[in-house]
Specification:
The protein has 263 residues and is of the alpha/beta class. It is 43% helix and 13% strand. The protein has helices spanning 20-31, 53-66, 83-102, 124-131, 135-144, 153-169, 196-199, 202-211, 223-233, 252-257, and strands spanning 11-15, 35-40, 46-47, 71-74, 109-113, 181-187, 245-248. A seven-stranded parallel β-sheet has the order 3-2-1-4-5-6-7, sandwiched between helices. Strand 1 (11-15), helix 1 (20-31) and strand 2 form a beta-alpha-beta unit.
């Protein structure tokens, strides 16, 4: 039997655990001897709707009742509705709400899942409203003009705001100072139920693949490939990586952005 010291005996909270990347991550963690508390709308140990304040608080309360945890993985997202509510405000509420409980672990780790959609242009007013915690204003902006998010809509805006939130808070005393590593994994197009609308239409598929190529690994990627990256970043073996946005996207971000950041 293979031993997994970076995972054995650790308890992981995984949102979005019922399908896609969340399900693949939960399965891999269990294979590596970790305890997983799965959270989703249904088919999970904890059922909660992260698109609503009440649902977010319910998740936090239910996890807290279960006792000590070692890692929080905010993977839940996607969808056609409640894009800002779930993908940004739900993720941030999960991470913030469980941070005090997480800080009690000897090796606390946290992670959120973003997307290469975060590279798309985004309306700064909506992003700033997200960062300010003004959910009503952020949603109102998008409802008044759904074109603000361009081709990726509110999903891309939510993920861009999530990237910025993690970059802002990860180095702070509340996170890094408390020994909590907080990172982002940003996948490209992966074969999950959330990406079915892209993969089911050949014209849409070709358009997306052309705009965001994935030269390493192909198009689409596999959920378990993303899960491998998530698992290492949230294991006890990660002792020096925090505040990073890791694009697990087959080279998509590099192909789109090039060396812009280093000029």
């Amino acid at each position: 039997m293979t031993s997994h010291p970076g995972f054995a005996g650790r308890t992981y909270v995984v949102t979005g655990s019922a399908s896609g990347i969340g399900a693949a991550t939960a399965a891999l963690l269990r294979e590596r001897d970790a305890t997983v508390i799965g959270c989703d709308l249904s088919d999970a140990e904890i059922q909660a709707d992260l698109s609503t304040p009440a649902g977010r608080q319910s998740l936090i309360d239910q996890v807290t009742d279960r006792g000590p945890i070692d890692a929080v993985l905010a993977i839940a997202g996607g969808g056609k509705t409640g894009l800002l509510e779930t993908n940004y405000f739900g993720a941030v509420a999960t991470l913030q709400g469980l941070r005090p409980l997480l800080a009690q672990s000897p090796a606390p780790r946290a992670l959120a899942v973003s997307s290469t959609s975060s590279l798309a242009p985004a309306d700064e007013r909506v992003v700033q409203a997200c960062l300010d915690g003004d959910e009503d204003a952020a949603v109102a902006y998008l409802e008044a003009d759904p074109t603000l998010g361009g081709p990726t809509g509110g999903y891309g805006i939510a993920k861009r705001a999530l990237n910025r939130w993690v970059r802002n808070v990860a180095p702070t005393p509340e996170w890094a100072g408390a020994g909590i590593a907080l990172n982002i994994v940003a996948p490209g197009v992966v074969d999950t139920p959330a990406a079915a609308w892209i993969l089911a239409d050949e014209e849409v598929r070709k358009t997306v693949e052309t705009a965001a190529p994935q030269p390493f690994g192909g198009f689409p990627g596999r959920p378990e490939w993303i899960a491998e990256t998530i698992c290492w970043l949230t294991s006890a073996d990660n002792r020096f990586v925090t505040g990073q946005i890791i694009f697990a996207d087959g080279g998509g971000e590099a192909a789109i952005v090039g060396d812009h950041h280093w000029r």
